[in-house]
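Progress note, sequence design subtask.
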């Protein structure tokens, strides 16, 4: 056996002793000190299913922004939002936006869609074979649904989209997944459904793959922007003219002009969405609450809309079409992440849509705050004051 292989304990690999052995191994071979990585408070026995070769903890600074006032269907009231980040000014900026929106009466949030996808692809001798197969899929949806749902208690197959190309048919299975993010649940259910399809379809199938990449898992895509992946959430608010002038030192006209200019610049640059920096808020809350951080790739895409109302106030909305969150499973049960979820009363069953509404409202606050800072020419000075930690 090579002495360069990372140590593992086949009987019980999730212990403090096994982690220390791996840290010693890496330190000896790299010369790096892992003193701080080796300091943590929770029991490694709870980590199977979350990580392999567990060796320690990478700690992130945690701050709370707020209170954030949400007038949602699932999230209602004031929340102190946990944000894990190493970027100075971030928590302060989101807190500033939260103060503004709270004084305006709070942010209205609405979940308008909720489904997770897996997209198998079937290939046939020719395009007509793929077309006929598509008709069969439509006629046999009940059997496919029953097969998919044998693998899960909470997942439900809602519908199957069809996309034809060449002699292939790409299917996009849409499942509701309860309070789990649901990628693995969706993959397992779709695989069972595809096994049922192959056993019951009476014509030759040339080729089958469980994923044809039209679910665009952990990648941005226009299809997910249009059809959603995870939760599709809208956050909206009307900000009074006087409030904008008093707290943000700007006007609805200036904010709107900047928004139109920003959208044109983003169009010229080929940006995939018209938000300002939604990834900042989403990533920091994701890390704090145990979400799959790679899902920021889909979740950050935002559709921002603004208007000056007839009364001269500023209407502002953020739509997150593919926000993937969980309050159960994955990293949500880890000790520190669970504590952060409990701060906003979002741990456990029945809380995923509530978390989605809180995150969407948080994103809106960050968009308004940064947008106003740019317009009032306070962006650079705020970073100089709060964002520098070295000479």
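Output:
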């Amino acid at each position: 056996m090579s002495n360069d292989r990372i140590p593992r304990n086949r009987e019980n690999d999730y212990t403090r002793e096994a982690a220390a052995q791996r840290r010693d191994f890496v330190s000896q071979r790299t010369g790096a000190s892992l003193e701080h990585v080796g300091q943590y408070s929770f029991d490694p026995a709870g980590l199977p299913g979350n990580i392999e070769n567990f060796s320690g903890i990478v700690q992130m600074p945690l701050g709370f922004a707020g209170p954030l006032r949400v007038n949602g269907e699932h999230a209602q009231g004031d929340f102190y939002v946990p944000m894990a980040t190493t970027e100075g000014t971030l928590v302060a900026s989101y807190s500033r936006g939260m103060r503004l929106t709270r004084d305006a009466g709070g942010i209205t949030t609405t979940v308008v869609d909720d489904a997770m996808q897996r997209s198998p692809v079937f290939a046939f001798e020719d395009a007509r074979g793929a077309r006929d197969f598509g008709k069969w899929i439509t006629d046999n949806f009940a059997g496919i649904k029953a097969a998919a749902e044998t693998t899960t208690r909470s997942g439900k197959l809602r519908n199957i989209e069809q996309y034809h190309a060449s002699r292939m048919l790409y299917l996009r299975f849409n499942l509701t997944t309860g309070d789990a993010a649901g990628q693995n649940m969706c993959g397992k259910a779709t695989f069972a459904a595809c096994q049922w399809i192959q056993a019951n379809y009476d014509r030759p199938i040339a080729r089958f793959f469980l994923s044809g990449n039209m679910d665009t898992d952990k990648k941005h895509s226009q299809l997910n922007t249009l059809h959603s992946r995870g939760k599709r959430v809208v956050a909206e608010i009307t900000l009074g003219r006087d409030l904008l002038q008093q707290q943000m030192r700007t006007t609805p006209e200036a904010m709107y002009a900047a928004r139109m200019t920003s959208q044109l610049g983003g169009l010229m640059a080929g940006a995939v969405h018209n938000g300002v920096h939604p990834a900042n808020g989403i990533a920091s809350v994701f890390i704090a609450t145990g979400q799959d951080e790679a899902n920021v790739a889909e979740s950050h895409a935002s559709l921002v809309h603004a208007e000056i109302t007839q009364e001269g106030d500023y209407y502002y909305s953020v739509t997150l079409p593919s926000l993937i969150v969980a309050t159960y499973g994955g990293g949500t049960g880890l000790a520190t992440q669970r504590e952060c979820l409990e701060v906003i009363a979002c741990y456990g069953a029945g809380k995923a849509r509530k978390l989605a509404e809180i995150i969407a409202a948080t994103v809106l606050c960050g968009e308004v705050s940064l947008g106003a800072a740019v317009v009032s020419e306070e962006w650079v000075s705020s970073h100089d004051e709060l964002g520098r930690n070295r000479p």
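The first strand starts at residue 62 and ends at 72. Work on this subtask will continue into the next period as scheduled.
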